[in-house]
Amino acid sequence: MDWVFLSELAINGALTGLLYSLFAIGLVLIYKASSVPNLAQGGLTMVGAYVVLALARDVGLPLWLAIPLAAVVMFGLGFGIERVALRRLAGRPVVMILMLTLGLDIFLRGTTLAIWGGTSRSMELGVSYDPLFFDDIFISRIHLVGAGVALALFVAFMLFFRTRTGIKLRAIADDYMASWSVGISVERGVGLSWALASVVAVAAGVIWGEIQGVDQALSLLLLKGLTVAVLGGLDSILGAVIAGIILGVVENVVSDFLDPLVGGGSRELIVAAVLILTVMIRPHGLFGRHDIERV
Amino acid sequence: MFYRLSGVHHANYVSDSRIFKVPADRNLTAFIFLIGLAAPFIIPSLYLNSYMLPWLIWTAAALGLNLVTGWAGQLHLGYAAVMAVGAYSSIHAARFGVPWEFALIIGGLTSSVIGSLFAFAALRVKGLYLALTTLAMQFVMDWVLTHSPAISGGSHASLQSPTLALLGQEITTDTGFYYVAFGWCVLVTIFMLNLKRTGLGRALVAVREKDFAAAILGVNSFYYKILAFATSSFIAGVSGALLVATFFFLAAPEQFSVAVSIQVLAMVIVGGLGSIIGSYFGVALILLVPGIVNGLVVTLSDGLGMQIDVETLAHIPNAVYGALIVIILLIEPLGLGKLYGNIRDYLMVWPFDQFKK
């Protein structure tokens, strides 16, 4: 057993896992406020990356300006999606809401590709591709930057949930009706959660776009993001971060053992297996709230 | 005066258990059935083969999903994987020399067995979590399919389907393929129409509304959930096999990917959960409209003398497909079947009520 190699796998897995968390935080924000599973987060991430590129390349803004501007645009888009689509289906069975977000996902992907084309583009953040060395362990710089962004967002949201607005969102997450009755604008709160999730999507889009190029494959992060969100508990941001690290490590280490046995490509299988096992054993995840159903 | 019926209500059990609650429905069905029979002589073979045939087979498949999602209320995002099981097992059986009649049944039964595995997830969780589990199972199935050459047919991952032959007749013409699809779709439709009137159908609806409450009433929700999954998987398996045997002629894993699962679910939900005529509408809308819109865009841009990027054109159908799902859900969350019902009820009150008196 080669411990250096194993720890390299584990550390890089954990960093990649934090990037999954970056994606999953968006899912959790929306689920927390409105119990809506947002299957359009993959599409949103893709749109986020393309908007950044459109501002940077087509308009010609520098990246440091393009990214915040894109965040503002996406903030508006998130609010708009909630206002136009989700609000009208509030209180409907989950199957219709699922289908609505799936339809949104398909629509966002199709529209983005129709406007900007499907060829892969690069983000060119300017992070060097040379790996960092710690003793014998390689670490990719962009992954380190991404993990930093994920942790920064985590801390930011932890602080945000202590502000007045954040407390309102927590109240909405806790009980729709009760927060309504004490005068909290539930609609605005849910809209805000969509807007924030769209901003998170910009961050995820930029980092993942730098890693794998800006193209349709960005929306395929959905399965991994969902797995992380479910494993952490769909309504816990801390859970998303920890579950991201767990999934990243498990995926990297196990696939290294499994790949030679099954002839490669076992990552998807591991992610799907983690999702199935989580739901079978502990549906509410590691830190999620366990709801009891009444007949 | 604008007023309409609140719904069709019955005063006795006989009228309540009729297949067609309204005579107009029966007449319309008979009319459509006749058109379906005569279609090969009316519709040009190109349209018959590329629009009518997939429409009918996808409708049969969508009705199967409607059974499990619309009647039994269990979310299923892995339906394409179940169709793949049926398609691959019956084609392997047919290639092995089993007559096609039995090969189709073998495909259906294998699907039933594998599809019932999905039901075990349904016993533990429901709603969103069930959807996610079935989605994950779809990924597992996809992975197994693409990584086992013995199933998917060697390095090219495509499997040639042998010539379809039913009752000793080799079927090679477009008309023949059409009638096979038509026959299967009619069979499934008759089954689904009658399902509502049986104890099984009522039990499934009870499980859908609230499985705990159903259990208290003495409906074994465990048994009915598995039964729903097994039956719908049988329909999925045979539909998948027929789709390959009459339409694709070549089985490949991409034909049964996650996107296809989502597409079938979209057909069912856009059509209306638990609505049979809705499934027909939903499949037609999802399958045909994006192509039609693309054609319109091409003609429009040619007419206006505009040049549209090829890549843009390639992605417009996808955008339209997504927009259709969103728009229909926003207009009428209960789907096209409900819209049809509303229009029918309205007409029954106003012009046609006058004729009855």
Which percent band covers the strand fraction of chain A?
A: under 5%
Strand-pairing-aware structural class of chain A: mainly alpha
Gap between N and C termini of chain B: 18 Å
Q: Return the CATH class of chain A.
A: Mainly Alpha
Order of helices and strands of chain B: HHHHHHHEEEHHHHEHHHHH
- What ranges of chain B have pLDDT less than 50 throughout 5 or more consecutive residues? none
Quote the beta fraction of chain B. under 5%
Q: Mean pLDDT score of chain A, rounded? A: 87
Order of helices and strands of chain A: HHHHEEHHHHHHH
| Average pLDDT, all residues of chain B | 85
CATH topology of chain A: ABC transporter involved in vitamin B12 uptake, BtuC
Q: What order do the strands of the largest sheet of chain A run in, or round the barrel if closed?
A: 1-2
Order of strands across the widest beta sheet of chain B? 1-4
Question: Could you describe the largest sheet of chain A, including whether it forms a barrel?
Answer: 2 strands, antiparallel
**CATH architecture level-2 label of chain A:** Orthogonal Bundle
